């Protein structure tokens, strides 16, 4: 049953996976009282949510501005259960997906200082319900299951902006997406294939590279093989566009496999800063090094349109119940996932 909450003064109690750094596992499934529904807010009864590395980094205390008691999670999909006083009641009962990027700002080129992500410091999606502003709602793509829809928002948005907006991917280009196995890299590879690019990917895992070939990736390389750069150049003659989240000392290898005039887009730096940097190669080959993170509201809408048009299917690794949250987080910590780890929030 779905209702329109207008001037109804109740604090709803829900179940959510919260950060609690006093606990041995640092997270706990517990009852949480949601604040009163604001006039422009909606309450979504979540069907499924998904993990991102951000959630595990919060558990490890590696993310800024942490607060115990906050429900983690940025990705989620569900049904609108209630709306605030100024929200169009047509949303009630709609199947929706949630844009987790909050307060991007008016500049499409970069986020403003107040930008944040759902799930810390604001209550997130690893719960039975979530409250967000009405402008975070989008109708769920009809071809996606609840689990697949929940896997899409943060990683899909990040991949789309890095590949299509910052990277300017076009059909026929040679594109390298590093680190296949993580959600963003998998979406970037899928989006590049749908855009008509010739796609390569790299990983240390033969299992993950086999999965990449299953989704249509044409060239795969184990980056632990010292000859991978030579092999990539032999097979592709170099890349017009490279999408990477590691940076670190692998930057030198990426510069070597970039074509003259190529673009290197970085949406993370999990391996830190590079110890050596071949500036001569960059300027002489007229390479472009571009940063990217999350995306604007326009990017999110464009990403959903792209997913609908090409009927993209997110790769789901494993589905856990809320009571299995620690196991799910440990799987992400170990890097064992092949696709997105999903939490089923309703039976």
From TrEMBL:
<dbReference type="InterPro" id="IPR036291">
    <property type="entry name" value="NAD(P)-bd_dom_sf"/>
</dbReference>
<dbReference type="InterPro" id="IPR020843">
    <property type="entry name" value="ER"/>
</dbReference>
<dbReference type="Pfam" id="PF00107">
    <property type="entry name" value="ADH_zinc_N"/>
</dbReference>
<dbReference type="InterPro" id="IPR052711">
    <property type="entry name" value="Zinc_ADH-like"/>
</dbReference>
<protein>
    <submittedName>
        <fullName>Alcohol dehydrogenase</fullName>
    </submittedName>
</protein>
<dbReference type="InterPro" id="IPR013149">
    <property type="entry name" value="ADH-like_C"/>
</dbReference>
<dbReference type="InterPro" id="IPR011032">
    <property type="entry name" value="GroES-like_sf"/>
</dbReference>
<dbReference type="Pfam" id="PF08240">
    <property type="entry name" value="ADH_N"/>
</dbReference>
<feature type="domain" description="Enoyl reductase (ER)">
    <location>
        <begin position="23"/>
        <end position="343"/>
    </location>
</feature>
<dbReference type="InterPro" id="IPR013154">
    <property type="entry name" value="ADH-like_N"/>
</dbReference>
<dbReference type="GO" id="GO:0016491">
    <property type="term" value="F:oxidoreductase activity"/>
</dbReference>
């Amino acid at each position: 049953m779905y209702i329109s909450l207008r001037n109804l003064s109740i604090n709803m109690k829900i179940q959510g996976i919260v950060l609690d750094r006093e606990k041995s596992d640092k997270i706990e499934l517990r009852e949480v009282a949601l604040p009163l529904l604001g006039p422009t807010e909606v309450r979504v009864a979540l069907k499924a949510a998904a993990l991102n590395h951000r959630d595990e980094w919060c558990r490890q205390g590696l993310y800024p501005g942490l607060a115990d008691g906050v429900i983690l999670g940025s990705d989620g999909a569900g049904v609108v259960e209630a709306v605030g006083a100024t929200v169009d009641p047509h949303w009630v009962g709609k199947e929706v997906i949630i844009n987790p990027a909050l307060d991007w700002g008016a500049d499409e080129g970069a986020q403003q200082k107040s930008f944040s992500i759902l799930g810390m410091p604001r209550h997130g999606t690893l719960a039975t319900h979530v409250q967000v502003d009405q402008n975070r709602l989008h109708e769920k793509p009809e071809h996606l299951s609840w689990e697949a829809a929940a896997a899409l928002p943060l990683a899909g948005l990040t991949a789309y902006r890095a590949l299509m907006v910052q990277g300017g991917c076009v059909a026929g280009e040679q594109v390298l997406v590093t680190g296949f196995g993580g959600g963003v890299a998998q979406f970037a590879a899928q989006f590049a294939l749908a855009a008509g690019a010739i796609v390569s990917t790299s990983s240390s895992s033969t299992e993950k590279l086999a999965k990449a070939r299953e989704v249509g990736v044409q060239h795969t390389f184990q980056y632990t093989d010292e000859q991978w750069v030579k092999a990539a150049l032999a097979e592709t003659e170099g890349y017009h566009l490279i999408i990477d989240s590691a940076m670190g000392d692998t930057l030198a290898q990426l510069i070597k496999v970039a074509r003259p005039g190529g673009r290197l887009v970085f949406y993370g730096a999990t391996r830190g800063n590079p110890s050596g940097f071949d500036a001569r190669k960059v300027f002489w080959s007229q390479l472009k090094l571009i940063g990217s993170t999350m995306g604007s509201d326009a990017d999110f809408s464009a990403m959903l349109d792209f997913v609908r048009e090409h009927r993209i299917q997110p790769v789901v690794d494993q589905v856990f119940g809320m009571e299995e949250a620690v196991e799910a987080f440990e799987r992400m910590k170990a890097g064992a996932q092949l696709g997105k780890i999903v939490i089923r929030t309703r039976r």
